Every structure is written in structure tokens, then in C-alpha cells.
Amino acid sequence: MPAILCLLLTTLLLATAAGASADQILQEMLVRDRPEQRSAGTTALTAEELALLPAPDQSITALLRLLPGVQLAEDAYTANNGGEILPPEISISGGRVYDNRFLIDGLGNDSLLDPLAGAVDDESAVPGHSQELFLDRALLGNLTLYRSNVPARYSGFTGGVVEVETRDPGQVFAAELNYRTTRSSWTEFHVEAAEREDFEHSTSADQQPDFTRHNARLLLDLPLGPRSGVLLSYGQQYSRIPLYLLEETQNQYRRQENLFVKYRLQPHEGTELSLTGLWTPYQGHYFLKDTRNSGFDIEGGGLALNARLKQRLRLAEVEVQLGFKRSENSRRAPADFYAWALTPSKDWGTLVGGKISKEGGYGDIEQLQDSLSLALHSQFVPWQFAGFAHHFSTGLRLEQAQASYERTEPHRYYYYRADTGLVCPESSVECLAGEQFVYYRKDYAVDEADADIGLLELYLEDRLERGRWTLRPGLNYSYNDLTGNNDYAGRLALFYDLFGDRSTLLSGGINRYYGKTLLTYALREEIAPYDRWNRSTKLTAAGTPVPWPASPPERVVTASRLASLETPRVDEWTLGLEQELLGGLLCLAYIDRNGEDLLGMTQLDKDDSNTIYSEWNNNGESRHREVTLSWQRQWARHYLLLDATWQDSEASNEDYDDLLRLEELEELVWYNGQVTQRIGLPRSDYNREWSANLIYRVELPAHFSFTNTTRYRSGYNAIVDSGDNYELPDGSKIDIYQERSLPSATLFDWALQWHSPLVAHQRLTLTLELFNVFNKKVYTAQTGVYQPGRQLWVEVNWAF
Asked: Which terminus of the chain, N or C, has fewer Cβ atoms within 10 Å?
């Protein structure tokens, strides 16, 4: 490793030194180079192409769902969550949702704070997301999706890489006002007849029969001179979700803001400086089901500051980047939770037919992630050696990330028993004379925990060209001081230009990718356990509660001890074809991946202090095979994109918190008419075998345009434990797993757009989007839950 570091630093310093007299070499800086080698596993979209892709919530991941090799979760869009505004999670080429790498202007956007935490009503955890910040779609300049043959520059993923470059400030003053909305009255719901009354009288955010959503944005281009300018944008998404709480209607809401500032300066040819700031706070206001005084807020999103300098020198083009980010997953909630017995003073539970009356919440939790990063990249001018043209690139990235967890006040969960003969020694919340007392409680103390990780990434890559052949070997080295792993990820891609005119390109590759190390692993190890207390439900002879024991009967660490962990990895081989066909580009790719050392959990025995521990392990495995086909063409007033994906995924688990003992993975089960190991069962989500998309857009007369999107998803076999056993010849019994077959679905989404003629540099655009035009009933993996039926969105845009 020291040798690699010395080589990298030497080459980078040489490249930098070569620019000592930049003004004198401007005429020599025009490098006549062939464009970066295409790969069938890469999809690159411009701002114009991205504008053609429909997406209900206008998020980046909603756009990606229409690209080959990308799948949404089965519950990403359902009729039960129409008011939610956070971007959906995605799987890329078989990876889990936290296995992807998101980049905004070169700065990482991956949350290391428990990205799979999802329940809003968890006492000790706050919902997370795989992304830290949520970028407004209007700010996209271009987007590149890497699914295979990923260049050595990228690391920290075992799924895919999503790289977004924000748009630059315009060269003339311009402004844009945009408003977009939908609501439940514009949406058709598919609900089982037996469930409709409960759905329409929903008491939980798990079912949202009534909602209103608003998206608004203001964007300004402010040129400061011929070579500099500023882009300003402020947007907000807001939804209101009325629900029933103890027979009264109360509103939940979600709000996400998006403030973006970008300054760009080109002092002379070959030099570019950009400074960006992005602030994306998210707040969701909830209440606990059937619980009085339980309103609480979930806060997320964060802040990013980014500085990039690109300098074209005599020997290389150098990019230097410095970035800072802060994000959070926090909760603001009532301090204590009370499960009151039904008594005359605590009787509201009878309103909902409950056996108890619930009140309060789970207390405040604040989780923050801060990171500071420095990156340096060099792309050298081509040079000849041994008959090959070499395109050499190298770079490094240093990052220091820190996470903190804080419970700012004690939290207690009280469970009561009623007794009219109760005598209280003293007045307290734990004892109400003649009424009820606490016999079970959980205690969470004021607590602070922090964890940090230092990351080093280095890469070397060369693109060797000779005749029709191109070879791209590369090596990515990564190290973090949390697990102490030195990970060497080799990358090798081969390209052959069949006819020498770049009309037919064959490709193949063998690559290794290493995943990221979450700060969750270390943070949870530092979080204090909570105590469980129990005492008798019977009273003493004096009618008082039995005293609490001297020490808690049980202490619980929800997770974890940070054992010696390997970095999860995926080994890949791939074949590809790119063919210019009928005026468009046809891409065919095959991807084969094997995942090893994936994370799971082992529950350990209680220790001497009666504390329960869990420990992460590397027992997880996965296998993914995928074939994708896409073709796109743009001509005259038409645009057409076709893509199809076949894939097969097997995975030991979806969640790093899943219990994953080796003996359980090797356990035999009965599935699909034969004996197989439990680890050989099909993946439980993100596993539609076939999917296809067709997007067609046409410019019509009278300033109209029409876009049709057709989405096909094959049937889905959800895997469930039947609860029955199969007897083997030796008399032993094994579990029987069954498939719950869900039918295929073909959906049509239409968009009709009209814009006014350009008058005095102003343009008014009206858009009507209709999703699921034919109101198709689309099943999800959750019994009785369907995707939304027909839904209308209306958008107004005024540019001036």
C-alpha cells in the first residue's frame, strides 16, 4: 500500500506541477481524445432525456425505476402510502438498498446511520434512508447509472453507482416558477370490500385514504459576468394526511424543503471552479395509533457544502474537491409512554374497543452524521507505449465521518394493572390510589454514544487502445480504521470494435466490488442497554404494590457487539453488446454476480449480568444473474426508449439485522417439490423475474406534446413458511415453504403537455399526468394491499 500511495502522490504532483505556466500552454491543452469507452452496463442520461421520464414524486430513484436492472421494493408505491414523500428505495443489479453508491457532484450521498430502520413507532430507533440528502429533480444536469464494469474510480458499493451532476447556472437571467399537485380525490383505490370500512376510517399512517400533496419550486439563473454565474433554487414538498385519533380527525403531515445554491466561475479556458450548497431538511409529523398526547416529529435530511476545482494542464486534467456534509435521523416525542388500565379516569381506550388506554410517546432521540472529505483525481493526456495508446487516470479520496446518538432525557414505558383496593405509599405516576399501579416497565437512561470512521480510497486505471481493441485494467484500494480491512478490488474490462467504426462494440469484464461499512455497527455497540423491570401483580397485605426488585431482572442490548467483520464483497463477470441499429443504440448485457461476507446477526447467550447481546457476522451470501436489453432513438419530433430485464436473485437475507446463524443457512427445507438449503430460497423482495418499459414521446401541433409510458412487471412468487412439515425418509421433519403467486401487470402512464408560444421571453407550460390510466388492479407482496389505481397529477410551470 505505501508503494501505491507514493506512486499516486507522485503522479498527481507531477500533473499539478505541469500547470505552473498555464497561460502559456493554453494552445497546447486541446487534447484530441476519443470519448470514454462505452459499456452496455452503463446508462447515461442528459437533462433533456431525464425530463422525458415520468415520476410521481419527481425523485431520482423514481426516475431510475424505468431503467434496466433497477427494481423498486414491492411496497414502494401502494394505495396505503399515497401521502408519503420520501424517495423510494431501489435495488440495482441484485444489490440491497444500502449497497448502492449515490454521488451528487462527486460528493458521496450515502447514509451510514441505520439506513434500513423503517418503523416510526420504535422505542429505540429512528427511521433511516439509504440517501442522506434528497435532490430536486429540476436541478439535474445529467445522470449516469453504472450497473456493471464500473470504473476503478468508484467504490463503496456492491449494487450500483448513481452519479448525478447538477445543472450549471445559465448565461442569461432566467426564472422559473413551478407548482405540482395531486390528492386522494384524484386517485382511485383498490381495497378489498371487507377492508374498506377500516381503510376509510384509518387510525394509522399504514393506511392513508385521504391525502393532499403539493410541490412548489422557484429557480433563478443569475449571471454575474461572461464567465461566472449563480443558480438559486428553493423547493418544497408538502403533504397533509388526515387520520382518526380516538374518534377525532387529526392531521399528520410530511414536509421536505430543498434549498440549492451553485456558483460557477471559468476565469479562463481550461479552468473551472464551482461552489455548491444544498440544504434538504425533512420533517414528518405523526401520532401513535389510538394514543392520547402522542404527537411526535421525525426529522431527516441535512446540509452539504462542496467545492470543486477542475484544471486542464499540459499533462493532465486535474480535479480537486473538498466537501462537508451533515445529516440526521432524529425524533422529537413525549418523554414517557403509559399503557393505562381501563379505569374511570383513564377510559379513552373504550373509544376504540381496546383493553388499555394509551398515552405519550417514546422520547427524544437525536442522531447526526458529519463527514469531511477530500478527493483528488487526475486524467492524463494519452501517450504511446509498446504499441498502445494509454489513457491513464489515478486518484485518491480521504474522508472522516462521525456519527452521534443522544437520548436527551430518560424514557420510561409503564404498563399498569387495575385494583380498586390499591393503597399508594405516596402519590406518583406509578401508583394511583384505588385505581391502578405499574407492574412492568422499561427504563431508558439519558445516553450518549459516538463513533467515527476514517476512510482512504486509492485507484489506478489505464485504458489501453490498439486498433479495434481496448483494454481497461484498474485497481481500487480502500481502507477504513473501523474494521481495519485492506480491500483490493480489481477491475478488468475488454472492448472490441467489431467493424472499426464504433457501430458494433463487444465488451466483457471481470470485477470485484467492496461494500461500505456503516457507522451503525459501532454506534449501537456504545448505546447503553435498557432495563426491564417486573413485579407481582398482587398487592401486599397492606394493599400496597410489592416493591420493585433491587436490580433489573434483565438488561437488553438490542444490538450489538462489533466483532471482527470482513467487508461485504461481490465478484462479477459480464458480457455486453452495443449496436447502432435503425438510427438508435441497442445495448445488450449479461451480468453474473456472487456476493460473499454479507452481513447478518447472531444472538448470543446471556452473560453474567443477565444481558442479552447480539453480534454481527459475515454469514450472508447472494447470487444474481441478469440480462438487460435496451434501445433508444430520438428523431424529428419523436423519442423512443425500450428496455427489458430478466433477472434471478437469491439471497440469504435482506437486512443486516436478520438472524443469520450458519446452521440456519445450511438447514434443509422443502420448496418447489424438492429438498433445498434455506439459503437457496429465492429472494423475498426486489425479485420480479421479468420487467420491461416503453417510453414514447411525440411533439404535436398547436404546442402540445404527448408521452406514453408502458411498464410491464412479471408475476411475482412471494415465499412464505406454510407452517407445515415435510417428513424425510429418515423420519426427520423439515419446514415447507410455499410460493404465493401474484399476477403480472402492465401499466400505462400518460402525460399531456401544452406550452404557450414564447412571448417576451416568457413560457407557460401546463402538464396533466395520468398514472395507471386503465385503473389496473396491481397486487403487492402484502396480502390485501394494492398499488394505486388511476391517479392524476397537475403541474403548472412559468418560465421568464
From this structure: N
pTM over 0.85: yes
Task: Give the model's pLDDT for residue 721.
Answer: 64
Rounded to the nearest 5 degrees, what angle is found at the Cα of 722, between the Cα atoms of 717 and 723? Answer: 160
Tell me if 135 sits within 8 A of 60, measured CB to CB. yes
CB 483 within 8 A of CB 567: yes
The full DSSP string for 396-413 is EEEEEEEEEEEE-S-EEE
Cβ 45 vs Cβ 60: under 8 Å: no
| 763 within 8 A of 748, measured Cβ to Cβ | no
Radius of gyration in angstroms for the set of CA atoms belonging to the chain, rounded to a whole number: 29
- Cα separation, 56 vs 433, whole angstroms: 55
Task: Determine contact, residues 405/450, Cβ cutoff 8 Å.
Answer: yes
State the Cα–Cα distance between residues 589 and 576, nearest whole angstrom.
Answer: 4
SS3 content of the chain, % helix, strand, coil (to 5): 10, 55, 35
Cell numbers linked to 610: 443477565
Residue 28 main-chain phi, psi, to 5 deg: -90, -5
Torsion angle of the four alpha carbons 430, 436, 439, 441, in this order, in degrees rounded to the nearest 10: -50
Strand segments (E) across 636-715: 638-651, 668-671, 674-677, 690-700, 704-713
Instruction: Return the closest-CA partner of residue 278 out of 223, 325, 221.
Output: 325
Mean pLDDT calculated for residue range 307-313: 96
pLDDT in tens, 8-41: 443 343 344 434 333 333 333 333 333 455 678 8
Q: Do you know the residue count of the chain? A: 800
CB count, 10 Å around CB of 625?
16
Residue 711 has φ and ψ, to the nearest 5°, of -120, 125
CATH numbers and ranges of domains, the chain: 2-19+37-799 (2.40.170.20)
| pLDDT of res. 670 | 75
Nearest alpha carbon to residue 111 among 274, 333, 282, 318: 282
